[in-house]
Amino acid sequence: MNKKSASLINFITSQSGQGRIRLIWIIAGITTMIAALPLTAAVLPAERFDALFHYYNGGGITVQGPALQASKQVGSNTLFSAKYYVDSISSASIDVVTSASKYSEKREEQSISATYLRDKSTLSLSYSNSEENDFVAKSTHFNISQDMYGDLTTLYMGYSKGWDNIYKTLKTAGNTNRDPAFAEDADRQKFRLGISQIISKDLVTNLNYELITDKGYLNNPYRTVRFTDGSTLGEIYPNTHSSNAISLSANYHLPYRAALHGSYRFYADSWGINANTFDIGYTHPYRDSWIIGGHYRHYSQNHANFYQDLFDPFAPQNYMARDKELSSFNSQTFGLNLSYNFIQQGWRMLDKGTLNLSIDHMRYDYDNFSDLRSATPSRYGFSANVVQVYMSLWY
Amino acid sequence: MIRTTPLIIGLLLTASGCTLQPWVKPYERARLADPIMSFDRNPISSSYLNHVYEAREGARGADGGQGGGCGCN
User: Fold this and answer.
1) Chain B within 8 Å of A79 (Cβ-Cβ)?
2) Secondary structure string (H, E, C) spanning B8-39
3) How far is B21 from chain A (nearest CA, A)?
4) Does the interface predicted TM-score (ipTM) exceed 0.90?
């Protein structure tokens, strides 16, 4: 199954020669289909304001901070939105404990977007900027969607381009500064295709495909690989990476007022990683003002073909990694969320307002990544808790 | 043949006058319009959670988000 899917996806998305021509023809075909379809009115997303506080704790890492997002419609067919997001990170993770020292840092992300409704299509353009002391990422995103078949079907396509600058920090006399001798960059591109389809009065599905290609410095500048003789060396990654992901999601309205959710994603990349993600959920309203939900997620992947927990110094390889994200592992998440609608009938300029709490418990178990903190290394694993408290207002 | 198939499908749809009729009528969509049926009821929360996963797992993409930054180590 994996081999067949991977070969089909690779066939469609090859980045050179015949494959590229096929991809162009497929996109041309879909574009022709969009042009040929009966058109119905699309609508802009609702105007809303969200304020969120997030907290993550697990594996020696604590990440917390606020996120704010607001959108405002101008005229009858344009919606502007802006987002501000902060990660305050305090890390004494397994990587840090075994090869570096504990650190704290802050990441800030700002993004702006404009969504435009023209005739029967929705077009959006956005720009995002993310900065931390050793990593700067800028990206632009373009999306187009089209409702058709009497609103039963929505087709969408998207493209993103990103530019990363990677630095390295040095600690000198208690201060953390960028290493002036180290500056690298990487470019990223994303291509998205999707279709949302109403199947019946109770069932709606969503099929998504995304191709991501990276080029440039893709290493982590701090991480090392270790050899059987006890020596270490900085990781060496390929300078290209392309991945394909396809996901199918479905929402089903039960005979009483509640919904079942399910999704599956298959992932394959040029580094040899294949991954499967399953998610199932249930949402249940309680009285008029409460919505209670729960979900379970399972994720598994095999390791990259240049990943090893321990390398042989007498059998050097072109590429070497000991990043646990590239190892073989699985993870499970149990999540609960609670939403209280405190403005049901509208109040002044507000149409609706909700207070929300989400709690997710995660467990990661690694098959071939050793915990080196004890004298007798064992397989590493950790648990983490994620808490989100947020308020949403519609106006 | 593979190259021309999508175009042929598109041309056939054009030629047929797009006679496909919606099989779920607008007045039958009350359940689908219920907020509990949304794929992304709380986008600020789902984009955060996708970021948490993407920073810890090898897989990426096709999750409805568009990402940004790292904050992964």
Assistant:
1) no
2) HHHHHHHHCCCCCCCCCCHHHCHHHHCHHHCC
3) 7
4) no
